[in-house]
Design brief:
GMP Synthetase, Chain A, domain 3; 3 helices; 36% strand; five-stranded antiparallel beta sheet; alpha+beta
């Protein structure tokens, strides 16, 4: 059976003023980042993708001189719960900016290539337990 785990990371104009989002400090956004997620392994794995993409959108936008008013990243993935095998993670990005749409699309494409957590997951990673 495939169980889905969805998370949302938001910053800037997409931050909710009320609600259940957990707020975390963020170097590129004065209001921090709002995270909407349950606390399970599946959610935390997907949150790593959403948080990395959000962070890298701000980093790459700053480097390219693009002003972002807000970013929201929703990441969702599933697991075959009989074996706890991931069925993959997908993410969607919303950007609030006055920059031309073509520039925002190029920014999102760049981040899809350079974001560290998605890159690592796409290549596979060994996970081992250490003695302590």
């Amino acid at each position: 059976m495939d169980e889905r785990f969805a998370v949302v990371a938001s910053a800037g104009s997409f931050l909710k003023k009320d609600g259940d989002d957990v707020r975390l400090p963020h170097q590129w956004t004065p209001g921090g980042v709002g995270v909407r997620s349950a606390f399970t392994g599946g959610h935390v794995l997907n949150l790593a993708v959403a948080a990395c993409v959000l962070n890298d959108l701000y980093r790459e936008a700053e480097a390219g001189g693009v002003e972002l008013r807000g970013v929201r990243v929703r990441a969702e993935g599933g697991f075959d719960t009989s074996r706890w095998k991931s069925s993959g993670i997908s993410y969607a990005v919303e950007v609030d900016s006055d920059a031309p749409q073509a520039l925002i699309a190029a920014l999102i494409a760049t981040v899809d290539e350079v974001a560290e957590i998605p890159r690592a997951l796409r290549q596979g990673a060994a996970v081992t337990r250490s003695a302590g």
